[in-house]
Amino acid sequence: MIPAKHLGRLGDRAKTLGTDPRTHPKLLEVLQSLHLDGDSHVGTNLTRESPLQDIISYVLDVNDILEDIHQNMDLSVPKISRSATEIVRSTKIVVGSDGNEIRLIFYRPSASLSGTPPPGVVYFHGGGMVILSTENPMHITWAEATARLGLVSIIVDFRNAVTRSGAHPFPAGLNDCTQAVQWIHNNKAELNISKIVLQGNSGGANLALATALKAKKEGWVSAIDGVFVTAPYISGTYHLPEEWKLENLPSLVECDGYLENMRTSALSSKLYDPSEHNARNPLAWPYWAEKKDLEGLPPHYIITDELDPWRDEGNAYYRKLVEAGVNAVGRMNLGMIHDGEMVFRHHIPELFLASLEEIRSFVFRV
Asked: Beta strand pairing status for 300-305 and 226-230?
């Protein structure tokens, strides 16, 4: 076993996914074919002190590149056993607190697999709360896949912190998410759903966790039956000195450059809270939640990835939940990068399908 202090870039700053012995063989094969197994540090001279408009332009360019990549990837869903044969899509519009329209996209089995009202899974997509569209094929196909399990999947089209048409920093996106969940709860009978479970990956995991925290703070947490998140991006500490990272969240150093890197993360997290007044506000960055914030929350299920820079913050949040008496499960995907089972689902289908089965089991259990 490799001592912890020698893992990844803690022991060798030149380490890459191609040379780290922990990288899943199937993942390594696809990364090599795409020439992504080397150093993934992005070449930009921008810092958090750069003009805000320059940071916005850079992050939006990154968004466009990622959207194009996802549009050209095979993100269809591997075969699911026990699945519904037909999925029906519909939309509803909810008016937000800023007078904005919040679009809810429903994916529903045409017939309940159990003959009773199915549970609802409210999905918040990834992208660091800043980038990626709701209609990105990675998000849509995931929602369709969960619906095939006999669940009603509801995607919240929340406002990203930056768009080509304007900025919507914290708490705009979170407000959209919480208002959507409250509307869904108030209309459960009409929507014919039996439960509400929040689900999100990466930045969407942040929003799912923060929605539960906000619901508790405002006194309506009983509306939420559970929270299921993967690869949570929740600390906002990506610009802090390396000494702080090594002491508190060493994976931010250990896995920096394993497709995800701290330079870009420091820029995008700045856009979520440009004033930096919410650096330790758990509604913006749930990692900073204290025991009093967590006590009384509904059951949680947290999945992290071993080779993800944000692994340690997800694991730390799980431990905080358990210490606060919350019914929580924590699990780690060994050899996997940030959200790797979602992106490379056809190369490692067993992990993608395992995540689906876990969310199905969790939703029906809570």
From this structure: parallel
CB 208 within 8 A of CB 281: no
Query: Integer distance in angstroms from the first to the last C-alpha of the chain?
Result: 37
Torsions phi, psi for 160 (to 5 deg): -70, 155
List of residues 6+ apart from 262 with CB closer than 8 A: 238, 239, 252, 256, 309
pTM of the model: 0.96
Per-block mean pLDDT, blocks of 10 residues, the chain (366 long): 79 94 97 89 84 96 94 85 77 96 95 80 98 96 94 98 95 98 98 98 99 99 99 98 98 96 95 97 99 99 98 99 99 97 94 95 97
Rounded CA separation 207/330 (Å): 18
CA dihedral angle for residue 247, residue 325, residue 219, residue 101, rounded to 10 degrees: 60
Joined together, the tokens standing for residue 230 give 């993967």
Angle (CA) 178-144-80 rounded to 5° is: 130
